[in-house]
Amino acid sequence: MSKNAKLIETIREHAGDAPVKLGLILGSGLGHLAGAVEGVAIPYSELPGFPHAGVSGHNPNLVIGTLEGVRVAVFGGRAHYYERGKPDEMRVPLEVLCELGADTVIATNAAGSLQADMPTGSIMALTDHINFSGLNPLIGEPTDKRFVPMMDAYEPELRNKLLAAAEAEEVEMHKGIYAWYSGPSFETPAEIRAIKTLGADAVGMSTVPEVILARFMGLRAAAISTITNMAAGMSDEAISHEHTKAMAPLGAAKLEKVLRRFLRDL
C-alpha cells in the first residue's frame, strides 16, 4: 500500500477517481489562477501529511478539475525551504500528483530579473537552473534513484509548446536560466552580480527543488517565472514581499493566457 494511501483516498472523496493529466504549482501572487479551474478546492489543512504553505500571497488549496478541457491538479501555494529548512517540502504533493495519474508538472514562480530587457511584468520560460543555494531535496534518499540526471530537466518539447502558445496569444515570453536562492532574505547586490556572472537571467526562492523531485519521480517538467522586480542593484526599485505580491498580477494575466492556450493545444 502506498504511504500516501490515506491522502489519495481523501482527495478522491472530494474530487472523484478520474485521473489527472497535469499538475500546476502556483507561485507568490499567482494563486488566483486556481479560481479558473472548474472543480473542487481542498484546503491543505484537510490533507494529512500535506505541507501547509505559510507565505502570504499563496492560496493553500489543492484544486482538482478541468481547465480548457484538461483535468489538472493545481497547487494554489507551495511550501518553501526557508519556512522550515527542508528542501524536500514538496515531495509529498508531487508524489500525490504522480499517484493521481499526472505525467507532467508546470511550476510557476515570482522572480527578480537580472536582465535590463526583461522588466517587471515580463514572463520567462526556464531553460535551465543554477542551484545557487547548494541544497538538494534528495539528500537522505536511500536508493540509487537519487542520482538523477538533470540534462534537459526543463523538457525542451514542453518549453517549445509553451513558447508556441505565447506566440499564438501574442504574448512576449523570454527564455532564460533561473537561479535558486534559499531566502527568506532577498539577495544582496554582490550576490546578484555573482549570480549574473554565473549566467543566470532571473533569481527566486523556489522551483528548483520541485523540478529535481519531479525528475526523480519521472514527471516531465517545465517552469515559468513572472518577473515582479529587478534584482538588487539592477534598479532603484524597493524590493519587498509586498512589492512582489503587488507586481505579480502584471505577469499573471500573460501567464494565464499562455497556460490556457497551452492546454487547449495539448
UniProtKB/TrEMBL annotation:
Pathway(s) this gene product operates in, as recorded in its UniProt entry: Purine metabolism; purine nucleoside salvage
Nucleoside phosphorylase domain sequence ranges: 21-264
EC number: 2.4.2.1
Any matching Pfam family: PNP_UDP_1
Signal peptide: none
InterPro entries: Nucleoside_phosphorylase_d, Nucleoside_phosphorylase_sf, PUNP, Purine_phosphorylase
Record note on quaternary structure: Homotrimer.
Role noted for this protein: The purine nucleoside phosphorylases catalyze the phosphorolytic breakdown of the N-glycosidic bond in the beta-(deoxy)ribonucleoside molecules, with the formation of the corresponding free purine bases and pentose-1-phosphate.
Protein name per Swiss-Prot or TrEMBL: Purine nucleoside phosphorylase
Species whose genome carries this gene: Marivivens donghaensis
Organism placement in taxonomy: Bacteria, Pseudomonadati, Pseudomonadota, Alphaproteobacteria, Rhodobacterales
